[in-house]
Amino acid sequence: MTTPAVVVTGAAAGIGRATVELFAERGYGVVAVDPDAARLTELETITNVVTLVGDVSTEETNVAAVRLALDTFGQLAASVLNAGIGGAPPIEAPGAIEQLDRIHAVNVRGAALGIRAAAPALRAAGGGAIVVTASGAGLRGDPYTWAYNTTKAAAINLVRSAALDYGYQGIRINAIAPGMTITPRTAAVRADPALHASITRRIPLGRWGDPREQAKVIYFLASPESSYITGAVIPSDGGLTASNGFLL
Ligand code: NAD
């Protein structure tokens, strides 16, 4: 039997995990990819979810994920290239450039490899969609996260450029640019009351996003519901990128 399938990377936690759950609920087969084998195992109890322990910065992982989707479900409908990391020290600090290289390998190389692996299978299916999880940090500067911001800006222009190359093949490629979202990645920021309050005050909707809210946008961009959208970057950030940062 053929079930439309989606590959989701960075699947074991946060936005990726919520995305796996949403696609599975809506009848898709899901290949969940993450290096965190322990957390990934928790997803194996969900019907129609299979897992792959792997690192998106390798071609091997990306190719294996698509092959697993085809072998298990028969057809690839979409790829959600969600894995992302940050964490570089200040630009003058020892090791900063090596850390930039690692962040780039996951956030940009990983997205490019994901597109490269998915495209033949999507073409064979007569078309499909790719969604890259970028960030509002790729649309403007943010203090103290220069390497992350740089790679997310690159991921956004990868999406725009690849959308041009693949549009005529029926493959739509879009990005979501999440704002502040309640995931393990942001736990340290949320644990600092002053920092948390100062960020929250700048969000027009006055609150942080839930991973499920991001998953719904990803689902929209990956499904035929968004059939005329490609090369777009959709902020999902409570209005943060609409603001110039001034407070009332
Ligand atoms: P998270 O850190 O909570 O979860 C990310 C998952 O990705 C983890 O399970 C981790 O093991 C996995 N991962 C890390 N390196 C990987 C690799 N090399 N290959 C495959 N998987 C890998 O993160 P999150 O907050 O859910 O973020 C998901 C995406 O959303 C990221 O691309 C992030 O940059 C982006 N984003 C998050 C926020 C936010 O506020 N949480 C805001 C903007 C953008």
TrEMBL record:
Against Gene3D superfamilies, the record matches this protein to: NAD(P)-binding Rossmann-like Domain (3.40.50.720)
Does the record bear Oxidoreductase in its keywords? yes
The record's keywords, sorted A to Z, are: Oxidoreductase
One Pfam assignment: adh_short_C2
Q: Which GO terms describe its molecular function?
A: oxidoreductase activity
The record's annotation in InterPro entries points to: NAD(P)-bd_dom_sf (IPR036291), Sc_DH/Rdtase_CS (IPR020904), SDR_fam (IPR002347)
**The keyword Oxidoreductase appears for this protein:** yes
| Alphabetized CDD domains for the sequence | SDR_c
Q: Which family does it belong to?
A: Belongs to the short-chain dehydrogenases/reductases (SDR) family.
Q: What is this protein called?
A: SDR family oxidoreductase
